Amino acid sequence: MAHKIAPSVLAADFGNLQRDVEMINESEADWFHIDIMDGVFVPNISFGMPVLDAIQKHAKKTIDVHLMIVDPDRYIDTFAKLGSHILTVHYEACTHLHRTLQAIKAANMKAGVALNPHTNINLLEDVIEDIDLVCIMSVNPGFGGQSFIENTYQKVKDLKTLIKRKNASTLIEIDGGVSTKNARQLIDCGADVLVAGSFVFKSDNPIETISDLKTV
Ligand code: DX5
Ligand code: ZN
Fold it and tell me: What is the pLDDT of residue 1?
């Protein structure tokens, strides 16, 4: 399967949000990656429901929501109503992860789990068959524009081995510091979806940059 590219709207120009959403519509990107931060789980606040509502009115591709919030169960139905297709919660924010995943699926969304850089992939062994997507954080969550953590390659390989051993169909997404410098190696290790924020939006030609990431 060809890998997917999910530009992170966190790095868009919020003064020209519709323009940037339409740019993603016209590009070879596959998904919209939407970062929701609460200032508690991570030391930053991004944007919330009204902004996602504005985005989804124009977005013509899969909406992949990454919740960096404590107690995400409170908002599962809200994000379903806002048109999210994939809802990813943090392993570190869920006391009853299995229950949370079932609740996301019951709301007709795909269920994702994100792992902080220090969280071992083996912690997912007993629940991997219930997860549609694992988002491996290749930076500490909270901010765009950080440097890629090199240990990610090994984590992707280990996770791919676990997914195959369990005969699961879970996708592997990489989030943080992704560029054409590491994209090929990540895909070779087993990544299916690459999130890219600054590398796309800070480039001179975001459409071309997305195409470069798609064809590495
Ligand atoms: C970080 C967010 C990322 C971020 C990626 O907490 O989850 O999605 O937008 O940005 P870049 O690609 O700039 O590292
Ligand atoms: Zn993200």
Answer: 74
Alpha-carbon 134 to chain mean position: 8
Tokens of 89: 């919660």
Exposure b/e, 23-44, CB count within 10 A at least 16 = b = bbeebebbbbbbbbbbeebbee
Catalytic position from the list 20, 30, 35, 64: 35
62 bridge partner residues: 31
**Across 32-40, average pLDDT:** 98
**CA 198 to centroid of ligand 1, rounded, Å:** 8
Domain that holds residue 210: 4-214
Please count the structural domains in the chain: 1
Q: State in Å: Cα 119 to ligand 1 middle.
A: 18
Give the chain's mean pLDDT. 98
Spell out which residues line ligand 1, taking CB within 6 angstroms: 8, 10-11, 33, 35, 66, 139, 141-146, 175-178, 195-199
Note the pTM of the prediction, 2 decimals. Answer: 0.98
Of 95, 102, 41, 98, nearest to 66 by C-alpha is 41
71 is catalytic: no
Domain at 137, CATH number = 3.20.20.70
Cα separation of the two ends of the chain: 14
